[in-house]
Specification:
Length: 219
């Protein structure tokens, strides 16, 4: 996801992130809501986007993940995964315009994507899109987390315990040497890192990122 000028670092506003912005000296316009809030940071860019209104959408005609799979557009990619924080399966869907056929380290072909919609199901509601990710590199899943890499940044995501939202767990920028880790799936417990600690976090996440590329089935 590329933008001109100042990059936008998009995260979910939480009490923990208020502590992160204060500790790292980042200026932000605080909005007291649970909606996505934009923090301006030089040369940073989050993979989390609103997906043109898809994020937060509950589908009136799709109760379960199987309904989402059966009604998605032909040519789109999909896969079910287990993500940390949530006890039920999570569905990832990739738009066909982002699907690319790439080889893995073993010479096998994979249907990879730089774009995913993330869905959860619940007995209390219909299927819901809890997030959209777009990155410069192929999005991966490993260690129960989603990995997204764009330029000099790497992020990881898990799911809140109630299955209602994506939670950003880790963020590291090798260029600015800023980042944070999150010890909770509630969006709290953020700890900012900078300098050498941010570099260490970045290379740790980068090492985990390699080999994590998702292989999508094609609808």
């Amino acid at each position: 996801m590329k933008k001109r000028g100042t990059k936008l670092f998009t995260i979910l506003l939480t009490a923990g992130m208020l502590a992160f912005t204060a500790a790292s000296g980042i200026s932000a316009n605080m909005i007291t809501s649970t909606k996505t809030t934009v923090y301006q940071m030089e040369k940073n860019d989050s993979a989390f986007v609103d997906g043109g209104g898809m994020t937060g959408k509950i589908f009136p005609d799709r109760k379960w993940l199987s309904d989402v799979e059966s009604k998605m557009s032909k040519g789109n990619g999909y896969v079910r995964v287990k993500l940390n924080g949530y006890s039920k399966p999570v569905l990832l869907e990739a738009s066909k315009k982002y699907i690319e056929h790439v080889g893995d380290s073993k010479g096998n072909s994979r249907n990879a994507s730089r774009h995913v919609w993330v869905y959860t199901e619940s007995s209390n509601r219909n299927a819901k899109c809890i997030g959209t990710l777009i990155s410069d590199d192929y999005i991966g899943v490993k260690n129960g987390m989603i990995y997204a890499r764009s330029g000099g940044t790497i992020e990881t995501y898990l799911v809140s315990a109630d299955g209602e939202r994506l939670v950003q767990k880790d963020y590291a920028d090798i260029n600015t040497k800023l980042g944070f880790t999150n010890s909770s799936n509630k969006g709290t417990g953020y700890k900012s890192v900078n300098g050498y600690s941010a570099e260490k976090l970045y290379y740790k996440l980068l090492d985990e990122f390699w080999g994590s590329t998702i292989h999508f089935k094609i609808r």
